[in-house]
Amino acid sequence: MDSRDWTQLGCVAYPSPIHPDYHAGPASTIAFDNQDELLWIGTQKGFAGSFIGRELKRFTAFRIHPEADGPLRQFLFVDKGVIFLGSRSVYMAARSGVPIWSIRHESMQDLRAMSFTSKGTSEILVAGWQNKMLVIDVNKGEVVKELPTQDHYSFLKMSRYICAATNKGTVNILDPINFTIKKQWQAHGAFINDLDTSNDFIVTCGGSHRQTHNTPAILDPYVKVFDLKNMSAMNPVPFAPLAAHVRMHPRMLTTAIVVNQAGQIHVTDLLNPSNSQVCYTQPQGVVLHFDVSRTGEGKALADNKHNTYIWGSPNKIQFTEIGIPPRLPDPPQPSLLPPDPDMLDELPLSRIGLPYYREQLFSALPPDIISDVGAPPQQVDPNILSTLTKTEWGYIGPNKTGLQRNQYIDTRSTMKTSNTIRAPKFLSEKARESQAGSEDNTLVTTETAVTTPNNDHWSLRPEAPPEYRICEIKYSKFGVDDFDFGFFNNTQYPGLENNITNSYANSLLQVMHYTPLLRNMALQHAATACLADPCLLCELGYVFDMLQKGEGPSCHATNMLRALNHTSNASVSGVLEENAKDKNPSTLVKNLTMFLFDKISQDYKGTPPISTELERTLFKLNQPPNPPDLVKKLLETDARYQIKCMHCQHVSPRTATTFVNKLCYPAAKPNIRGMKAQRITFSQVLKAGLENEAVNKGYCTKCQRYQNLDQRKIIFNIPAVLALCTEITTAEHRKLWSTPGWLPEEIGIIVDQGHVYCYEGDDLKLHLNRGIHNITVYSLVGTVVNVETKSPQKSHLVATVNVGRAEPESKDQDRWHLFNDFSVRSISKVEALTFNAAWKMPVVVMFQVKAANHRFNMDWKTRLDTSVLFRDNNPHALKTYEILDRETEIPGPETVIAIDTEFIRLKEREIHIDEDGKSKTIRPISHAIARASVVRGQGPREGVAFIDDYIHIKETIVDYLTEWSGITPTDLDPINSQRNLVSPKTAYKKLWVLVNLGCKFLGHGLSQDFRVINIQVPRNQVIDTSIIFMKPPSQRKISLAFLAWYLLKEDIQQNTHDSIEDAQTALKLYRKYEEFMANGSFHDVLEALYKKGKTLNFKPPRISTGAAKDAGFGTVHRVSTPPVPAPGTSEGTFEIPSSTTTTTGSSSVLSATGGVGSASASSSMPSTPVRKPIGLGGPFTVAGVTKPSSATSVDTIGAGAAGTGITATGTGTMGGGYGGYGTDGAYWGGPNDMAPTSMMGGSAFIPARLPPGLPESRFIPYRPQVLAAEREADAAAAAAGNDVGGGSDVGDVGGAGGEHGKQE
């Protein structure tokens, strides 16, 4: 801090000789404003005046309190205005003088000081030479607390604590919350004349008695210092001229400025007092008051001769950081009328000018408060009028209008054109009308811009047309699936739904998706083995893959936006809608663009992509590049800042790597009469933004002070993807963008020796034809546009994208589309590149090198990393699955897999109830996948699960839906769960890999599963049993439980749902369907199915109902799914974890051995439920074979050794002999047979059949499909000695069968 160039810059006499307070005395206090370039001066009789800048030009002056209250004591400054302290009142007013509040309180007797508290500028503490302190709420303008005190205070200053100087020379350090005394410090012997604080120091000037207390006290020749951090006094700073006033420098934390009564100023370092600078001022009298501006550049002194001086450096002085002067009142406008009223009769009206208003007048009433008067009459249909009979008083005839007599018709509403798109009918409603032949709902737009020529003028309208306004999803009792998204999109490009949090990002995601290089980056990374959670680049790849595969009108990016919530620094970066301080959509999307580009560059560097062939070809690289080098070429603007001090010319470099550049507009120049206004082009704005040359205030290391610094970027490389934030802040900027054709479709950029040159239009063509410079051409991909609408609608974002950039070469170059969330429309190029200053302004503009247009690299599909399918992420979990064998079970396009999932609830439905009491769903119930099970659909281990993942949910779960899902809190607890608990990323990655391998997904009602999973599966890869067993034209889909009850004779989902059970049931239904199609009985079965369903309301009868008993169903028990065989064990032996307690009823462990194999089981096995064949009873014996006690007599069947079953686990055991027949004639337990979920015998459960060698006439089979091939296969197995009984699945003796025998 150099005081050698200080000089007096201004002086003002206040109160002046003509002021009413002049004879009362000089100024009572002075202070610099910390918001505006103002200096405030108070008088002895309650006046306050403010003065602007170094010239001290008068700004305002007004009375604060009556003369009787004495002098004005102190100022405090807040955003809304200034707080003034008098002896008996506290007053707040705007800087213009408009009063805000005034407080006079009975406890205000002799106030001397005030300070802010721990609540910042919303609360102040006032005190004085009185026995009470008061706490005042600044926002309310009222006293909220009174505090007794024994000390009388002269000064209050706030830093770490409230530092209070008493009238006895001590300083009390007060707690800023409860105002108790933390420490007392005796600073001076008699009084304290001035006090100031910084973060760590207190400095005081005061006086002491030199000999006795009877002698007058004089100023001390030193400044006392106290360390607030250590709560201890420091060595005083000597000041021989007698210190009268002191201030801490606002920027230099250890520097104090000391002034004596003669105006001598010393600038001293508290830690090095010998290092000081001296400046001599020449006041006309004794200095009474002193203050330093917030920047430390301005010093103000007031003397006893009514003069106030400003001292500082003439080169630069600002009172505040920004240095903006206060707004002055507008000067009076000259009259537009001639001075002589008599001339009006002769003066033509064209000579009288009209006023120009930049702001809307108060007389321009908003449309929502304008009342309509005199509605037009209802128009009568001419066809009806022709049927009426004319009379003397009018027409008479039958009422064919369909309205009641004298019924009110709002003709004004019906005649007005709506400014919103009408909501389409629900799909269920349209289906009913379709059956009745009354389909009348049509789409108002078509796919191509040729058929919608009017869209060239949408952007020229004064307000946003319906196509740009917010589209709302309506919800019926069937949920979001019933909404007709196709009404808003008949193009081949899916939109994105907006009913989820942070869906403002939809427009940016669409622009990024149709940028080929960004899409390629995301997909090449998503195909790697990356399992980082969260990884935004992977999530982008999944979203882009959905949009590519999208066969419907819309998708949703739920997983991507949830991952954004859990990404580090997302909240502080202002990209989360719920936590952002500025919820303006344009601010949010700008922050998100910078955040995403930074995060995806980090993710891309972390894992090498699957293929870099596209980048190698594009950038003509000989060797495969590493990820950091690719990020530099694709996303980073490689540059270095050159910072030059304007005072000493010192230059210092600094690296500057940016991913998103901001446009910089030249300063508006005043129009000079007779000169043509200079045209500003987009290329000029882009060049200024890339080079970012600006003059800012900063610290110069050579000057060792704050100076004006010239900052400029030296550019070395421009990335292949050029993302730009438009930074539109003024009306001039809006005017530029609303100029027709201002945004070019192509730009050319030359980087030469650190400088950037940008060209467009004819200049670009000229440079390309010359071919002298290495110019890179960029194509405009799309823009994110902020649509500003008036209340009650909110502003929102849309995207205009040229999807032709991401299409093959054979298609048109220009295929512009408007993406308004799930509403997608084809628009013309003119409409896409036209902006409107009133409501349509771009926020983000995306360019890409032209050479990358129409370029794709599909290597990620052929080189997809599938290791996640063959990896057991949790080998210690209870196993209800067996991972795929890498050698023999490789998924591919012909692989059929059965899938089912279970959900939990994350958020309840958000509703809005209007004034009429009607509720409207704002956001639907939010679900998340909690368990995903995938079962082998073919091969020797058909029906065996190879994925059974429980997902660790990071969000708060409001309902586990245990009754329907079977999920309990323990299952998803990472500490206590014994399940195969994985991250959402891992579970999703497995399914995504299976989709891209071409596997066929089989299940029941898969559309809802895929929606919650947030995955897009092509239709040709989906086998949905709810659609297979649906009889057209009926739209009724039959539940899985009813299909299993009717077609499989199995009672499932009794107490809860289970994903493995449901997937296996869907697989059996599909096999049943194939069987029906093979014998040509499918249509007859479907008719019978619907007929039976109507009688039962399509609900399967349970065991307690009469219908179940009439159908021959006995008691059905649910037991646990058996664990899969442990590696290295025989097929008849199952491993139980040693830590698991095994109990069944009163038994702790049950085990049994048979003639061929053995088994053991535990009741605490995984709880995937399975079914027991109907009608099992107690054991009985026939010819060495144990027989159920409830079965009827059965002839001797086979002579194999009996095997003992297991009563707990539901696993069939190995035993000799054959089983019997049940009440329905179904045979259970033939050779080489096994229980439905057993791992024995190497095959799945085979439908009932007769034992080989027995006369068929002895039995009446209930099931008609008994194939000779099955009997022959069983006979061959028996001849080979492979008499392995399937046993029962609840522990009855193996080989005895499981159903009641029914003889002829």
Automatic annotation (TrEMBL):
Location(s) in or outside the cell: Cytoplasm
One Pfam family, short name: RNase_T
Needed co-factor(s): a divalent metal cation
Feature: compositional bias, Low complexity: 1137-1170
Gene Ontology molecular-function annotations: metal ion binding; nucleic acid binding; poly(A)-specific ribonuclease activity
Positions contributing to a divalent metal cation binding: 900, 902, 1009, 1062
Cofactor annotation comment: Binds 2 metal cations per subunit in the catalytic exonuclease domain.
Reactions catalysed, as given in the entry: Exonucleolytic cleavage of poly(A) to 5'-AMP
GO biological process, one term: mRNA processing
Principal location: cytoplasm
Bias kind Gly residues: ranges: 1283-1298
EC code: 3.1.13.4
Superkingdom classification of source: Eukaryota
Stretches the record annotates as Disordered: 1122-1171, 1272-1304
Keywords (A to Z) from UniProt: Cytoplasm, Exonuclease, Hydrolase, Metal-binding, mRNA processing, Nuclease, Repeat, WD repeat
InterPro entries on file: PAN2, PAN2-PAN3_catalytic_subunit, PAN2_N, PAN2_UCH_dom, Papain-like_cys_pep_sf, Ribonucl_H, RNaseH-like_sf, RNaseH_sf
Gene3D superfamilies assigned to the protein according to its UniProt record, in alphabetical order: Cysteine proteinases, Ribonuclease H-like superfamily/Ribonuclease H, YVTN repeat-like/Quinoprotein amine dehydrogenase
Domain USP: 494-850
Regulation: Positively regulated by the regulatory subunit PAN3.
GO cellular component: P-body; PAN complex
Subunit organization: Forms a heterotrimer with an asymmetric homodimer of the regulatory subunit PAN3 to form the poly(A)-nuclease (PAN) deadenylation complex.
Annotated domain remarks: Contains a pseudo-UCH domain. This ubiquitin C-terminal hydrolase (UCH)-like or ubiquitin specific protease (USP)-like domain is predicted to be catalytically inactive because it lacks the active site catalytic triad characteristic of thiol proteases, with residues at the equivalent structural positions that are incompatible with catalysis, and it cannot bind ubiquitin. It functions as a structural scaffold for intra- and intermolecular interactions in the complex. The linker, or PAN3 interaction domain (PID), between the WD40 repeats and the pseudo-UCH domain mediates interaction with PAN3.
Similarity field: Belongs to the peptidase C19 family. PAN2 subfamily.
UniProt cross-references to PANTHER family, sorted A to Z: DEADENYLATION COMPLEX CATALYTIC SUBUNIT PAN2 (PTHR15728), PAN2-PAN3 DEADENYLATION COMPLEX CATALYTIC SUBUNIT PAN2 (PTHR15728:SF0)
Protein name as catalogued: PAN2-PAN3 deadenylation complex catalytic subunit PAN2
